[in-house]
Amino acid sequence: MIARWIGTVGGVGYIRPAPGTWGSAAALPLAWCLHILGGFPLLMIALVTVFAAGWWATIQMTAGQSDHDPSEIVVDEVVGQWIALAPLSFAAWDRGIDILAMWPGWIAAFGLFRLFDIWKPLWVGTADRRGDPLGVMLDDVIAGVFAAIGVLIMAAIAHGVLMS
Fold it and tell me: Phi, psi (5° rounding) for residue 8?
């Protein structure tokens, strides 16, 4: 029961169509709340905690099943989306900026994370092909890292850092 609640993020994973996109969307207000309550440090603590809980829940939910990554498991999307949002949380926390003022970055983080999670380039696909609960979590972690890098590059361009 607890594993299913964690794995589906309170039932969000049962929303159709595109439960992964719904899981990513659910991650946004959760990240905002964590950031408001404790800034970047709390988001990072929650990220590590949810990764561990999600890995455990995925083990429980897939035990004895042939499908190693059922679509209703969306806790991995929450973790990946939070990684994609991490540069925004850090910048807002470090500079004392209202994180919602960074709304273009939120859109970029969401779009890039979904792109890399669906496309599964390079190590994202390698992690997904592990075919085990850790792979379920890791492919989204790596997609989140790729998205975070994309967010940083887009911010650098938008703020003139990469312009000559």
Answer: -95, 5
